Amino acid sequence: MTLQADQWQRLETLFEQALAQPEGERAAWVASAVGEDTTLRAQLEALIAADAGDGIIDRAVARAAHRLLRESSSGAESVVLGRRFGPYRLVRELGRGGMGRVYLAERDDEQYRGQVAIKLLPSSASAGLQERFRTERQVQADLQHPGIARLLDAGTSEEGEAYLVLEYVDGKPIDVYCREQRLSVAARLRLVAELCDAVQFAHRNLVVHRDIKPSNVLVTADGAPKLLDFGIAKLIDPDRANALALHQTAELSRILTLEAASPEQLRGEPATTATDVYALGALLYRLLTGRGAHSAEATDPVTLSRAILVSEPQRPSLAVLAPLPADCDAGDRADNGERADNGNVSALAEAGEDAIHLAAQLRTTPEKLSRALRGDLDTILLKALRKEPARRYASAAELADDLGRHLQRRPVLARGDSASYLLRRFLARHSKAVAGTAIAVVAMIGLVGFYTAELASERDRAQREAQRAEAVSAFLTDLFEGATPERNLGELVSARELLDLGAARIEQELASEPAVQAELMRVIGSAYAALGLVDPATDLLEQALAVRENLGGPADVLLGDVLYALGNLRASQGRYEEATALLSRALATRSALRGDVHHDIVTTHLGFAALHEAQLAFDDAETHIEAAEAVLAALPSPDPELVISTRLWQAHLDRRRGRLDQSIAGYREAVALRTEVFGADYPATLSNRSSLAQALTDAAHFGEAEEIHSGVLEARRRVLPEGHPAIATTLSSLATVLKFQGRSAEAEPLEAEALAIQRAAHRDDHPQIAVALNNLANLRHDLNDLDGAFALHQESLAMNRRLNGDDHPILAHNYTNLAALEFERGNYTQALALYRRTLALARVGYGDENPFTSHTMHGIGNTLLRL
Fold it and tell me: What pLDDT score does 439 carry?
């Protein structure tokens, strides 16, 4: 049976009233309200059941039915045009929505001429809607801002209809205005930044709009945006908002606009200022791309809801090159929708036509538009549209500020998704991971797969590179097969023996193929370095560079890879000038060949970060970490290993700068992620655990630090070859924790073993030898062996001066320890001179706020008291 208009109107009213009843009393209320009208009762119970459903589909059905109720009841509305409300007479309808209808009205009392907008709520509106209408009246009365339509008056008609008299904005919806005026990207950004100012004003007055969309932002003829319709606004002042709490959620679920809705609104969570930030991002996304942020995935309200809750929006710079989805306005399409009838047009052609048409509206070409959005604007928009409110811009003003920074060509504050967040997303997509156990084997097996993938995905490379890749892959495969027990009479081959075998074969078999020879020298040299075998690593990498440079010809991927590997090795040896030159050449070569967005660019920036951090050049290190993060954010599928590594380098830097809380948090996150993906004994996981323990030591959490270092030492002795430098590093770190707990007698033999390992692993001077000498000297000092401590300190200082020069901040550690020793001996004049030398270097390397600098000042004060 079809319901008549009056029945539809009654059903709508009953639906609103039923939802206001306590759930346990609702069924009885419905039975009483509908009486014997079984049809009306069935319809009402179906709507209530759908609204109460747990799924998005049920709620979407309820919202759709509610819209049908409103549309079907329109015929039952009394004719209001020509009626007077106060001194104003209604002229024509301007629009309608979930909170009533809006009419253009003219002053009709012969006092003066003028036009206003009157928002009218029918007398049949539910109690919830009436309460919200009163809220809107108060909200708009409090918001006096040039970017917000002003409330002029309010009242109730003789028929009981509540109304608001608002400033009439003679303008066009912001998307229509931008399209008709063919505004450039910059002009659209300025327009939204101006709108952000109005939204921020509302937020300062404790009001969240909750429905920012194109139709609620009109732009006047002189280009000024005006924010309208605070009908579902929320008061965020608890004292004013409590009275509305019973009505807000049920009403909002049926009134808000889906495309502008944030994930938390769809989940039924409280709206905050971050909700409006999301809506501003969604609005700007449409203005710059001609489509909604999730339009490509959404064919109906249900799928759109799922997309908003689950899917990440496509980068705007890519979206503008894709065909426009069906939800787009006809003015955005290349041929006003008629193209759908042409079955012979390919998807690529469709995308091209749409892109050209859209770009023309912004006075540019598709390529230039995509380029204009790539980078900063991609990052800004995706930050505003993040699923989690806490990860968006903190305010509308902050969003406007970043838009201004972009327009002024200044660095924006937004960053792409953090390394840890990107990795979590990666893990969600790839739930299974395989962990390796031997560094060298893992590295070389990875190279086999790498070359196979290179052949499959980059077939347009020069033929000589393809042939070289095949030869390298074949060599490594044969090397592994030769190492199996079946080929070695049942004997297992160690990683070191495997590398030695490979190095010998390179010399014997590949002299006639220098390009293949150089690449394999790099691969095996890097594996030696990973095992802590510095001498053979140095020999092979130096040979690889010499062979490649002797080949001549233009720069290629091989040259960049060899330069990078040798640059990292030089940095680990403390040969910083050589490392800087090699890494600079590597970055230039890789950028020229790979472009600026590639995993190789990330690894090179991280190499620079390590180099600068070792030299205490923290600002330079941070610059390269930020560059690595920016490249990772731009990559469609970032390598999870690089994501973690970038996050770790930021934690290292935080620790060196004394930001211990941030450092510890970063290390904990990285350890958890690496353990989950690769396992607890994976070499990189052990390294991360050790770094965490060092930061905990700095923060005086000695018990936890000792427990972690002891576990790492046990694992490293078990999985690494005897004499590996990583074992020495862990011994030294554990000794430091014991020293700080007053257990220097236990620590001294651990540090002595660490020094012996470092001396055996590195030839001549090396930063790790200098560190071990310094640490052992401190322990001898604690044990009252002052002469032994003095000799070790002097050796460490001399080595650091040879490695770094006379004025490097790293020397501050040597000088402060010598100062403490002289103070202990009663040589206060010498101690004061050493402390002052320490302070000068510490201020340069660490700054005045660093705990090390403060400790040095304390030493100076104590010494002066003794003079």
Answer: 43
Single-letter code of the amino acid located at 621: A
Give the mean model confidence (pLDDT) for residues 50-63. 46
Is pLDDT larger for residue 335 or for residue 608? Answer: 608
Q: What's the pLDDT at 563?
A: 94
The domain made up of 184-220+252-414 has a fold known as Transferase(Phosphotransferase); domain 1 (1.10.510)
Q: Which residues are within 8 A (CB) of 22 and not within 5 positions of it... i.e. 6 or more apart?
A: none
Greater model confidence, 238 or 802 = 802
Contact 102, 95 (CB under 8 A): yes
Residue 500 annotated as catalytic: no
Q: In this predicted structure, what is the pLDDT of residue 584? A: 95
Phi-psi region of 337 (alpha: psi -120 to 50; beta: other; left: phi over 0): left
Q: What is the three-class DSSP state of 324?
A: coil
Out of 3.20.20.150, 1.10.540.10, 3.40.50.150, 1.25.40.10, which CATH number does the structure's domain 743-866 have? 1.25.40.10
Regarding beta strands 171-173 and 115-121, do their DSSP bridges make them parallel or antiparallel, or are they unpaired? unpaired
**What integer pLDDT is reported at residue 355 of this predicted model?**
64
What distance in Å separates the CA atoms of residue 574 and residue 542, rounded to the nearest whole number? Answer: 16
- Measured over the CA atoms of residue 116, residue 121, residue 127 and residue 128, the dihedral's sign is negative
Bridge partners, 165 (sequence order): 118, 153
Within 8 A by CB and 6+ apart from 496, the residues are 440, 531, 533, 721
Q: What size, in residues, is the chain?
A: 867
Among residues 51, 211, 354, 698, which one is catalytic?
211
Domain 84-167 class? alpha beta
- Helix, strand, coil percent content, the chain, rounded in steps of 5: 65, 5, 25
235 by DSSP, 3-state: which?
strand
Taking the C-alpha atoms of residue 64 and residue 353, their distance in angstroms, rounded to an integer, is 33
CA atoms within 13 A on the CB side of 444: 31
**H helix or E strand, kind and range, residue 156:** strand 151-156
**Where would I find the beta strands (DSSP E) of 363-509?**
none
